[in-house]
Design goal:
Layout: H1 5-38, H2 42-82, H3 85-100, H4 108-114, H5 125-137, E1 141-148, E2 153-156, H6 169-177, E3 179-181, E4 185-187, E5 192-202, E6 209-218, H7 220-233, H8 240-245, H9 251-257, E7 265-269, E8 275-278, E9 313-318, E10 335-341, H10 345-348, E11 361-367, H11 389-434, H12 449-475
Antiparallel strand pairs: 1-2, 1-6, 3-5, 4-5, 5-6, 7-8, 7-11, 9-10, 10-11
Helix pairs in contact: 1-11, 2-7, 11-12
Amino acid sequence: MTHSLGVRFGLAVFSLVWIPLIVATGWGAQWLWQRMESRPSAALQSLALRGDALNLTEAASSLAETIDAFLLDRIVEVQTWAASSVVVDAVHKARAAHAKQGFDNLSIQEIEDKFRIRKSLGLAPGARAYLSEQVRASPHFAEIFFTDELGFNVALSNPTTDFVQSDERWWRQAWSSGFSVGSIEFDASANVWAVDLSVVIRDKRNRNPIGVMKAVLSIRFVQFLSDRVARRLSRPDHLLHAQLSDPSLDGKNRDVQYPGAHRTQFVVSTRDGMLIAETRSAHARGRIMQTDVSIHTDPSLAHLNLSYDGDPTGSFIANRNDTGNSLSGTPPRSQLVAYSRSAGTGFYAPAIDNFSGFNWTVIAEAPNLSGYDVLPELTGTPLQTKPNWARDILLLGAGLCGVLLFSSIILCWLFGKWVLSPVRTLITCVKRIEQGHIGVRVTLSSKGELADLAASIDRIRTMIGLMADRLRQTSTGRRPPGTPESGMPRQGSESGGS
């Protein structure tokens, strides 16, 4: 069977067609796999982008929670100081001294005229030392001082601008509600942008208010926390699609091609849009808490406006309008932006009643290295969102294999019809001749070499028939025509030689 024409022809087709095809398919599959690894499909890029959006949103939320936790700890810290025996005793002692000096009957201006240089009577050196010790232990506070029930200074860690504080809004609010949080303002005495935390001082026996403590908390802690998180997230291997976009670029080369391409930046702003922290500018003094540098008005920050719409937490893709950090002034890449709001009443309720929170917004942004201009939904998005060039190549290869398979089947069928079938007919005729059936002529409907072969076999059949007839005649004694009776030809005459 292995020597049959059909098997040989099949092996020839397999060797000449299918082995090269299998080799070419294997090479193409390897090439395609390498291309898919070096340039991910749209589905994989979409998945990576959604993963980056979740990571960035989680980072913004985590930073907001860290800031809130830090602020809550500082509020509790100030409350603890205000409740200490050193502070309460100093207030009682100063109240008696202030009344004895007749300050209760003087106007604020008259009292201020008496304390142009000094800002306290210096009656509580132990309390002053206590405050200085707390500032050293908690360096985020730029200044701490407290007053008696009429707003007269008792002890202070740094010189203040006024001796009487009862005409200040923070003092009145803290006295009436027990706690006050001021807006971010520049504190001239401490020379920092700061937020005031003011708490009422209560008598230990009857819990009646007897004074107010104010702690000036510098906002540099927000900048410090933002820098720390930004450094952690700016590693080149942190964002998923940063790896998928071009694995051949390491962090250094990526910076050469796209300055700051792998860096994650943070902005923390007030509800009015003014900046508390901005890692991109290294918290430049000319930008922090400046009315003309707002997310709502500054062109370089306009792409962050969506962070103020609707949801307390979210993410989106935005196009930056500034070209300061781009090559040759060309528009920079679009940004992946995530944001989160600071905590509200429920978070601070265990320590403070009726405090709605600081109402700050934490914004994180990173370069959008994917090809998407619109962020896909984070859930429920089909992975195959657009045609895939790799899939098209696979379909083309499958179609080519199908065509070759069909062509091979047709070729084998035609070979059987045109070659094998006539050959089998000739083999059958030869076998019949072997069996003595020499009366049937050998004919083929096909033309060409096989027809000539059939004619040759038919001539052989005819000669075998003639030879068979002669043998039969010889065996029965019959002489073929023209043959002498003796069976031998006559040689000369029968006359004698004499």
